[in-house]
Prior knowledge:
Blueprint: H1 3-6, H2 9-25, H3 29-49, H4 51-62, H5 69-85, H6 94-99, H7 103-127
Helix pairs in contact: 2-7, 3-4, 3-5, 3-7, 4-5, 5-7
Amino acid sequence: MTVAQQQTLDQQRARHAWTAVQDVASRSEDFKKKYGSLARRVPMLILTNGLGPTLAFLRSKGKNDPHDAHTVLAGHLSTWVLSQIASGAQNQTLLDWVLNHDSHDYRRATAEALAYLVWLKRFAEAELPTEED
């Protein structure tokens, strides 16, 4: 058995989120502040507006720039959620996936995104500054 097979799903979420935050921690101070603030806000954006509109917001703000915190956070979220609910979704973003699936799949994706973001937010609060700091 591999380590991933021995861990609970929540432990796997935590490991992925920790890796994401550690990747961000090696970037510029400005990037860390933007990502940290965003990681704290995204769960509430999803609860208030829904997963699809939040992903669309991240895409519009990030403009697919790999050096933008919105794009990077959307990528971290997309990678994790798609690995859990759509293992066959190759070269697809989470936004593209939710736009092409039914409400049952949308709810599953939302639940998984929020469960993952608990860890991402927690680690971001512990490791990254915010724009308000």
